[in-house]
Amino acid sequence: MKIKKDIIATLAGDFGAFVAAWYAFYHVRFELNWFEHTLTVAPATLLLPAVVTAAFWVAIFAFFGLYKRLYLISRFDELIRVCKISIVGTLIFFFLLFTDDLNWNSENISYAKNYTILYWALVFSFVSFSRLTIRTVQRAIVKRGYGLHKAIIIGTGQTAREVYEDIKRHRTTGLDVVGFISTDHHDTSNSRIENQTEAQQNEAISNSSASVSFTTKELAGSRSYSSQTADIALANPDVDIETPKAVEPILTESAQEDSLHIIGSISSINEAIDTYQVEDVIVAMESDERLKLVDILDRIDKPNISIKIIPDFYQIISGLNQTNQIFGLPLIEVMPDPMPVWEKSVKRLMDIVLSLIILIVSLPVMLITALLIKLTSKGPAIFSQERVGLYANNFMMYKFRSMYQDAESKTGPTWAKENDKRITPLGYWLRKLRLDELPQLYNVLKGDMSLVGPRPERPFFVNQFKKDIPLYSRRLRVRPGITGWAQVKWKYDETFDDVIEKTKYDLFYVENISLKMDLKILINTIFTMLSGKGQ
User: Fold this and answer.
1) In angstroms, what CA-CA distances link 249 with 156, 211, 216, 260?
2) Which positions ≥6 away from 62 have C-beta within 8 Å?
3) Exposed, middle or buried, 119 (CB in 10 Å: 0-12/13-18/19+)?
4) Mean pLDDT of 357-377
5) CB distance 450 to 351 below 8 Å
6) Residue 421: what are its φ and ψ, rounded to 5°?
């Protein structure tokens, strides 16, 4: 099953389970007379409230990320997650139903507790049964070789071969290795591989195994031995001469690579991912190639791509890395998303609510600012510029214009600097108080930006920085923000060294992103605005 099919199947199963749980709850509560209440209602009458409660539960599950990472998830781990979230959802559900009941007493409180426990038990049971059934069917399908995730292995050495053989032996990994990525710097032609049939590939493998290399000493020795044997045989035809054993062929490194399905090199890894629709990348390089790891991680900047590496023995025993077991091999997931789904949901909700409030409250200030800009310099009050956002998607960012019109028409894209002559007198104060960034709240509402995140840069600079700063593209894995950790901890970019320093702060934020850290940055930003330390 593909990701979308996983989500649709699980969501449909959950929805049916929630509806069934509601009917079962009604039946136990009223018709079985467990709680001394007898009531009979036509099943059709219960359909609307059942659908409404099911929609509520789906929203709760989605909010807490129970429709993420569903592919071949551990069934035990999934039941634990369902148990936790169903408890939270049940408490929210009954709080919403009974919050307006002011006539609480010991008797109805006892009933409410019993109702809550019963309803939770039914929801958990029905949803667990549904999900266990779906995951069991999913595993059965995968065992037959259907619905596998396409994967590539980076490396062509012994480690890569061992990983490939383990994946082939264990279908339940859900992985279908479409090829190998060569760690050599030269590009590997894809056309030779893409047009081959499976039979042709097998023939190529068998032919390549015939490519052998003998050492000079072995070759000379074998020729000398053959010559001496021939002389003895001619002189003594009745003597039984033992035929020497053939020298075992030694595959050269190039012959080993030729026997693999190499679909590209490190420099073309993104093209290989797109061409073969890869979802999993396994880094299985030899120990002497580990210096290339940073370059590889820097190149793979695509969303929803799982990157795992085979750890060194020292990394395993040191306990400094969390490993997962797949097909008996310990794997380290590289650059996992550190923010839980529910925190992402709260962060986005906070962006929308705070942006609306600030826009409404600051509307008079924005109107006055726009008028002053029009009166003091030529050009539009609102300035738009293309910036690079989440996962390198470009968008138009809006600001109050703080520079003279066409300030870069002669120089091209350049960094702002202290006492920049391109900045208008009014723009100087707009930047000091950070009022020039108020129109970006519209970008936040659209979803292009967040209140907190790395500062969005122009495509011209991003392309340059990605080449010169290791792991710079990592900062593109979160939404850019109006303010951020780098903005409150470092000055405005004036030199390339400033960019490097700010990137360190940005990467620290990306790796430690949380609601707590966002609140800390927002508070720091308010103090920066009030103190007039903006640039």
Assistant:
1) 19, 8, 13, 18
2) none
3) buried
4) 94
5) yes
6) -75, -10
Q: Which pairs with CB-CB distance under 8 Å and at least 24 residues apart come from 371-378? A: 372/426, 373/400, 373/401, 373/426, 376/424, 376/425, 376/426, 377/401, 377/404, 377/405, 377/424, 377/426, 378/404, 378/405
Could you give the CA distance from residue 529 to residue 532 in angstroms, rounded to a whole number? 5
- How many Cα atoms sit within 13 Å of 75 on the Cβ side? 13
CA pair distance 430, 402, nearest whole angstrom: 7
Q: Where are the alpha helices (DSSP H) in 99-215?
A: 106-143, 158-169, 191-194, 198-208
Question: What number of helices (H) and strands (E) belong to the chain?
Answer: 20, 13
CA 466 to chain centre: 19
**Strand order of the sheet with strand 149-154?**
262-265, 175-182, 149-154, 280-283, 306-309, 329-333, 323-326
Question: For 68-77, what is the mean pLDDT?
Answer: 80
Q: Report the C-alpha gap between 398 and 406 in whole angstroms.
A: 16
CA distance 14 to 7: 10
pLDDT tens per residue, range 248-263: 343 444 445 556 789 9
Dump pLDDT digits (tens) for 15-29. Answer: 999 999 999 988 887
User: E strand or H helix at 53, and its extent?
Assistant: helix 43-63
Cβ atoms of 129 and 20 closer than 8 Å:
no
Q: Of all residues in the chain, what percent carry a pLDDT higher than 90?
A: 32
Q: Which residues of 206-244 are buried (b: 16+ CB within 10 A; e: fewer)?
A: eebeeeeeeeeeeeeeeeeeeeeeeeeeeeeeeeeeeee
Q: Which two tokens stand for residue 425?
A: 């007198």
Query: Across the chain, what does the average pLDDT equal?
Result: 77
Q: Of 278-282, 412-416, 424-428, 451-455, where does mean pLDDT reach its minimum?
A: 412-416
Full-model pTM: 0.67
For 148-164, the pLDDT digits (tens) are: 889 999 998 888 898 88
Looking at the DSSP assignment, which residues form a beta bridge with residue 331?
324
Kindly indicate the confidence band of residue 319, based on its pLDDT and cuts at 50, 70 and 90: very low
Cα dihedral 88, 91, 97, 99 in deg (nearest 10): -120
Question: What is the rounded CA–CA span in Å between residue 453 and residue 350?
Answer: 13
Return the pLDDT at 387.
95
pLDDT tens digit string along 514-526? 999 999 999 988 8
